[in-house]
Amino acid sequence: MHRMVLFHEYVLKGLLIVLIQEFIASKSSKVNSNVEWNIDQYPNITETDHLTLTCKKSYQLLDIAVVAGTEILDEEDEDFKTVKVFGYTPSLVINTNMCYWNRACIISFPRDAMFSCVSVINSTDKGALIRPNEEFSQASCFLQNVEFLRPVHAKCVADKLVRNIFDRHSQVLSPTKLPRRKGLLKSHMSYPWNYLECYRNHTYRHRFKLRKERHVLLFGLKFVHVCDGDRLVLKTKKGDTNLAFLEENTHLNFTKKTHRYVELEFKISPYSDGCGGFLICYNVVKKKHLHTYGEGKKNVCDDLMKKIPKLDREFLTSKASGLR
Q: Going from the N-terminus, what domains does the chain have, and what CATH number goes with each?
């Protein structure tokens, strides 16, 4: 009987790891352009500390990346030097996701081993990039215990700009109107967790008002991952644009003269398994500023996420349980 219980525990742990690995794969971007904190300059969060992230009043957290790390012996080095390796643990992924859409939160030091490894590269003196480890090497984080945490990036967005297309509690389309000039659309309230099968057979449509000729309605795709069979499109007089096939950080612009109207449609099929969802930013900008947006330039989401949360490293006490 005891062996059977242990077997069930191992199976459940294995399923959890597989699910979280799929989650990380679906949320991984090719390049992370939101870089603020230099990972080598910020002090380590050790097992006696916890990390707090705090936005100012009427703002909420999003786009959070915190990695775990340790130092191990590099067996490929002739001098047997130590190297830093980075990755995620299941509890760190869960803890970080629970921070989203709160004004402030605590990320506690993880006690479980790392299972998904990443490379953290200082691209500039302003921050770092996170990329998945594509090749297994001797210097791997896999199943290593965590020695420290490193914050990489996080953003704050104004409460008034964020809208859910699907409501987690009522399981119906959110009736709230969208901000007129600029806003952040998220597919469902529980993002970054996957949207659920309970949203099957629902359709959301919203027609955006196009302004005068000197203005352009600009969309920026922060993250898009909808299931096969589900539909996420922008409709205009000139035809439909399937957003599911576009790269992240893609920009689309629309004018009243050329497109006449723009309508967003998100349709979940009756057989959907539920996927990552999406974050889409929009903003009405002047035509003369359009050239400042695009690949290697400013993202339209940057107009909404200018604020960076305050970082604090505090000594972990028994009272430091959760801050919401």
A: 30-158+307-315 (no CATH), 160-303 (2.60.120.290)
